[in-house]
Amino acid sequence: MHGFDKLIGHVKTYGFEHRQLYAVSIMIFFFAIFDGIFSFITPIYIVQQGISESMMGIIIGTSSIAGLLFDFILCRVLKDTKYRLIYLVVFVICMIYPLVLYQAKSALIFIIAMALWGLYYDLVNIGNLDFITRTSKAKEYSSNFGVLRIFLDLGYLLAPLITGFLIIEIIDYKPFVAAWVFLILAFICYFVTIFIAQQSRQKNKADKQITSDGFLSEFKLWKKISHYIIPVLAVSFMLNIVDAIYWTIGPLLSESMSFLGDLGGLFMTAYVLPPLFVGWFVGSITSKYGKKRTAFMSLFLGSLFLMLFPVFDWPIALVVLSFLSSFCTSFASPAIAAAYADYIHETPQVEKEITTIQDSFVNIGYIFGPIMAGFSGQYLGHLTTFCLLGVLGIFVSLYLLKFTPKKINIKI
User: Fold this and answer.
1) Which region, left, alpha or beta, applies to residue 170 given φ > 0 means left and ψ of -120 to 50 means alpha?
2) Is the distance from CB of 219 to CB of 320 less than 8 angstroms?
3) 238 falls within a domain
4) 253 in a domain, yes or no?
5) Rounded Cα gap, residues 160 and 266, in angstroms
6) Is residue 290 part of a domain?
């Protein structure tokens, strides 16, 4: 009830001025259920076709390889494309994706399906960032990203529970049909956002964008911008490795009922639940400690709990550790998203470069994450994989805490 009261209070505080935020958030909620269903069933579905865990990790990683290639192309073609058009393209791709995945029986068809998955996931991230920077005040970036993340994670929380009712022994058509239903609900909400947007005043982006003569000069511009914001990009990379590993071997761990017993389904639930609480007060935390420092400390604390997985290898302890680790790292995602929004606000002439660089590091995390999860999970074990992930997160967060400057200014 406390979370619901906070939601009501948030609505009353912002009133109709922020009604579009909640319309998009509800749309993202239904989309997250759609995507969460496929995030849960895809590793199981691939292994169900007789493919090994290591090969499964490589196949899932190709989704982000495709996304990384799309990022560079999108940076060339995106000018001042608004989130409404981006979301529309997402819905078109999402209608096609289940058809390809359902028909997949070979590695090649799975890779084609993963390419579609990588593209629409990229576009959603780009659309969300454009939406917040176009419709929010700079001081509200953290809190608005927090609200958007709450609805996103609520969808990902419900998706495995819904999928669990639809899977008996093997994955058949039922999860695919259910996912389409939620996609249609998201599309209905999309029309609501269009109606609200027509009545709302939105910020215009900078008219003068930095343009490059070719791919080489574009790459040099990416390199220059990345040099300034590399600490923030490093956190994005780590957070998405964590998320990728959870969604790659987490469902397999949950399905190992002989190991986790009746608590198998709670493992992934414990991972996706904490952001529902964190999102409400992440804005006050970042305003006190700063966006970057909040993200670094969140990654450090969350990694400590991951490192303990092989030590406390009984069901209840694993569920608790999963919850505590996720609770800590949940502060990092909206904090980092708000930092990117700040950089766009301060240097709007390179908005498309910042957006696509940020999304590229998301993709790099999702390339390495599934591949690491597949090989490490198969040869070292699932719990050891989480432990090694925790060690890497501690090293990265301590380095960033020590060497990252308090203020980062992009000079172009």
Assistant:
1) beta
2) no
3) yes
4) yes
5) 10
6) yes
Domain of residue 348: give its range.
Answer: 19-201+215-403
CA dihedral 76, 77, 81, 85 (to 10 degrees): -140
- Four-residue CA torsion sign, 358, 287, 326, 156: negative
pTM: 0.74
What angle do the packed helices 351-379 and 107-135 form, to 10 degrees?
A: 140
Examine residue 177 and state whether it is found in any structural domain, yes or no. Answer: yes
If one counts every other C-beta atom within 10 angstroms of the C-beta of residue 201, the result is 8
Encode burial over 349-381: b for 16+ CB neighbours within 10 A, e otherwise. Answer: bbbbbbbbbbbbbbbbbbbbbbbbbbbbbbeee
| Helical pair 382-403 and 291-307, crossing angle rounded to 10 deg | 150
- 204 phi, psi to nearest 5 deg: -85, 140
Phi and psi at residue 5, to the nearest 5° = -65, -40
Contact indicator for 27, 190 with CB cutoff of 8 Å: yes
Structure tokens at 199: 């009545």
- Rounded to whole angstroms, the Cα distance separating 140 from 342 reads 10
CA distance 152 to 162: 15
Q: How far is the C-alpha of 123 from the C-alpha of 97, rounded, in Å? A: 14
d(CA 150, CA 64): 24
Over its length of 412 residues, how does the chain's per-residue pLDDT go in tens digits? 444 454 444 444 444 447 888 889 999 999 999 998 988 888 888 888 888 878 888 888 888 788 777 776 765 665 556 888 889 989 999 999 999 988 888 888 888 998 898 888 888 888 888 888 888 777 777 778 878 888 988 898 888 778 877 776 667 788 888 999 999 999 999 988 887 766 665 555 554 455 555 567 777 887 888 888 899 999 999 998 999 888 888 877 776 645 555 555 677 788 888 877 776 777 788 888 888 899 999 999 999 999 999 888 777 888 899 999 999 998 888 888 888 888 888 888 877 788 888 888 888 888 888 888 888 888 888 889 999 999 999 999 999 998 888 777 777 6
Instruction: Take residue 291 and report the two structure tokens written for it.
Output: 């966006």
DSSP label of 207: S
How many domains, the chain?
1
CATH number of the domain at 353, please.
Answer: 1.20.1250.20
Are the CB atoms for 20 and 193 separated by under 8 Å? yes
